[in-house]
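HOLO CASE FILE
Compound: zinc ion
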Amino acid sequence: MRKYVIMGVQGSGKGTQSQMLRDDLDLVHISVGDIFRWHVRNRTKLGAQVRRIMAAGELVGDDLVESVVRRRLDDHDWNFGFIIDGFPRNGRQAEFFMESYDIDAVIHLELPDDEVRRRVLNRRLCPNCGMDYNLIADRPEVEGRCDICGHELVTRADDTPEALEARLRDYHEKTRPVLELFRRKEVVHDVDGRPPLEDVQNAIRKTLGLPAYTR
Ligand SMILES: [Zn+2]
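Model generated. Tokens follow.
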């Protein structure tokens, strides 16, 4: 049984890295962002609550995140373990989480803010089929058009420089105390998030003592 937490700023690739670990190790990937998106898309009661919070320009509160994570973990479908992304959000949650679940490792993907800005502000999205693009790494074949469906690509509404700065500030403020707490327990593995995806994945595996990634 492997129980991992992955931490990293938006754009650090933690979603992709988590999925690569999940597929290979049969872990359950618990992504707080994905859970909320699912509820919003499927118009559940929780989804309506999240939509109201975001429409008011606010962030989903720590308590709501915690109850969603608790409920998800209570499903106990993680026979081989889990990798959790988007939690814990503060020191109190980190403390509770470590005591309840005996975490094996915290993977901390490091990415300098300048690199985050470069990655995030070059993101484009197809509003029709949901395909993601990046003007640096994943350019569409025809400029401004989706490779899959041909629809015109757009920038996500919250990928403005101002919104990104606010999210970066929020991330650093929230992450610092959580990381400090985990560091005291000596479970944090810092991994450089700048190299290509597979290199990052192998760096994660090396530090966790896992076999190298093979496609
Ligand atoms: Zn498309």
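CASE NOTES: Strands lie at 2-8, 28-31, 81-85, 105-110, 123-125, 132-134, 188-192. The longest helix spans residues 161-184.
CLOSED: yes
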